[in-house]
TrEMBL record:
Protein name: Myotubularin- protein 9
Coiled coil: none
Lineage, top ranks: Eukaryota, Metazoa, Chordata, Craniata, Vertebrata
InterPro entries reported in the protein's UniProt record: Myotubularin, Myotubularin-like_Pase_dom, Prot-tyrosine_phosphatase-like
Limits of the Myotubularin phosphatase domain: 1-127
Superkingdom of origin organism: Eukaryota
PANTHER family assigned: MYOTUBULARIN-RELATED (PTHR10807), MYOTUBULARIN-RELATED PROTEIN 9 (PTHR10807:SF56)
Family: Belongs to the protein-tyrosine phosphatase family. Non-receptor class myotubularin subfamily.
Organism: Xenoophorus captivus
Length: 178
């Protein structure tokens, strides 16, 4: 079982299959995930860079993760001995920091993305990634991270002040009377 990367990514650097079976199913899946990520930016631990990384390594990669069409193919080709897994590289602390969504907040609620045509956008971060200036995007990302960190500091101060107020209210009953 598994996604048939060998057949579906026929234009990849490592494929020798017939183009007749080629289909961008994995790219379509990643685009769907990006659409939902865009609509619910606080609901995912990963960011857009992670999805772009998966796309790029599905078509041309120094990792063996997307070679073959299933675990049996990868074992037959001895890929675990010949290549490194993309997941072991992604799980390094410096990579995790780069691919983690700073807006993420755990949420147990179900998300219902809109599939209305006006809700779906072109994934510029993938399809136009060479036409965009990364300087502005990097600056905006840094500013967003600073705002999130400042917000967390303020929230910690609010929580601290609430605890102090609650403690004062329990210590001095005169504070409760108007």
């Amino acid at each position: 079982a598994g996604h048939p990367f060998q057949q579906r990514c026929a234009q990849s650097a490592y494929s020798n299959s017939k183009p007749r079976q080629e289909a961008p199913a994995f790219l379509l899946f990643l685009d769907c995930v990006w659409q939902v990520l865009r609509q619910f930016p606080c609901s995912f631990e990963f960011n857009e860079s992670f999805l772009v990384l998966l796309f790029e390594h599905a078509y041309a990669s120094q990792f063996g993760t997307f070679l073959g069409s299933c675990a049996a193919d990868r074992a037959r080709l001895s890929l675990p001995e010949k290549t490194v897994s993309l997941w072991s590289w992604v799980n390094r602390p410096q990579e995790l920091e780069r691919l983690t969504n700073p807006l993420y907040e755990a949420n147990s609620l179900v998300i219902w993305p809109s599939v209305a045509p006006q809700s779906l956008l072109l994934w510029e971060g993938l399809f136009l990634r060479w036409n965009r200036s990364s300087k502005c995007l990097d600056e905006a990302y840094e500013e967003m991270v600073h705002i999130i960190e400042y917000n967390k500091e303020l929230q910690n101060k609010v929580n601290s002040l609430r605890r102090q107020l609650a403690q004062l209210e329990t210590e001095d009953p005169l504070l409760d009377t108007p």
